Give the backbone structure.
Amino acid sequence: MKLVIIEPLGVEDEKLLQMAKEALPESVEITYYNTRVTDTDTLIERGKDADIIAVSNLPLNADVIRGCANLKMLAVAFTGVDHIAMDVCRERGITVCNCSGYSNAAVADLVFGMIVALYRNLPACGQAVRNGKTKDGLIGFELEGKKFGVVGTGAIGLKVAAVAQAFGCQVYAYSRTKKEIPGITYVDLDTLLAECDIVSLHTPLNDGTRGLINGERLAKMKPNAVLINTSRGPVVDSAALAEALNSGKIAGAGIDVFEGEPPIPADHPLLTAKNVIATPHIGFATKEALVKRAVIVFDNIVKWMAGTPQNVMK
């Protein structure tokens, strides 16, 4: 059985390989590529003999999947799989397992880092200190007592909701599946957008969520509201959000995800929009989360080899 780790997984090379050897049976031959490439031919060359491929957020298109003739299992070191040609995987009977849960704490941390930065004007405060100025014009807001909307109550959404409650927020939620969670009030999306001071997005990207937050829905938000997106970039209409920010229809935004992976084009509308905290898709990227992720990757492989696959994506 051959495993190809087709790109770096964010853990030091020696440590990653040691983790793999300790977790996997001796019968597994491990090939590790510690450079990231994107061209189809090279990816096929790397994976052509693999029974199992471990991949993070590197796009694996239909040609790559078809070119890896022996492929039986994809261990995706990520929560979402929208970068994988899932239709071809289903067509070929390839098992795809994700790493749900590894970044719950990491993403929640970033959400509140962004909110505090926006609410307390931290970027402007830093400039004021460096320019010899005072707090004039920089009086901020508290989280306590604010209405906090969570769109999508999977594991990450629920983690964010719990932290919001700890801050003393009133938590509202919109999700395809409602859950009985103390302190969380489920409402429809339009009500959540109209009522909440903070809206944090935690939905997967699919046909139902692409463009979910568009101009019409942004118009329903309060002028003092902030929008946080750490889910997937295309869930939000970026041009509409930039217009809403520049015209004062909403007060601010924290954006970790865009239509594509960084580097983000210099002319992207959100990079010059008012009151935006922008980060280069770092929500999942903590030392602790990346180790957790590698543990889940190798555990997924072990379970699949034993005939009891877990974290299987349909």
